[in-house]
Design a protein that fits this description.
about 50% helix; four-stranded mixed sheet; 5 helices; about 20% strand; single chain
Length: about 130
């Protein structure tokens, strides 16, 4: 997980990401996907409306390295004004959306089982993180 973000966001995205990443890594550590992908790179894009066109959403599968890449836009002003729990939620929403995006990559061949497992893992992380943050 990493980000491309505007300076007005400050450390907020980094803090939220650092709460999510270890939980996701732990939940996914023994998962083997049927499609053969071994790693996913998730890049959140947190840019104001006037700059967002320069940071398009991207979905790629690097077959030789077995790496899926997803760059997903977050709503800048909503994220900027949100509290830490809401920011974690917005990042998790973006992770769910990234799964939808990469599911459309034909060369990836993400199975229905892989898709549901990944989405349910994000939701398990959401339950755990919300409980920890409240």
């Amino acid at each position: 997980m990493t980000s491309e973000q505007h300076a007005l966001i400050g450390d907020a995205e980094h803090i939220a990401r650092n709460k999510i990443k270890p939980v996701m890594v732990r939940l996914l550590e023994n998962i083997v996907l049927e499609c053969g992908a071994e790693k996913m790179t998730f890049i959140s894009i947190v840019m104001p409306d006037e700059l967002i066109a320069e940071y398009p959403e991207v979905k790629r599968y690097h077959k030789a390295r077995r790496v899926v890449e997803a760059r997903v836009q977050l709503p800048f002003y909503e994220f900027k004004e949100a509290d830490s729990v809401q920011q974690v939620g917005l990042l998790l929403d973006a992770l769910v959306r990234s799964i939808d995006m990469v599911g459309k990559i034909k060369s990836l061949k993400l199975t229905r089982g892989d898709y549901h497992m990944l989405k349910s893992t994000v939701e398990k992380a959401r339950v755990q993180l919300v409980a920890d943050l409240l």
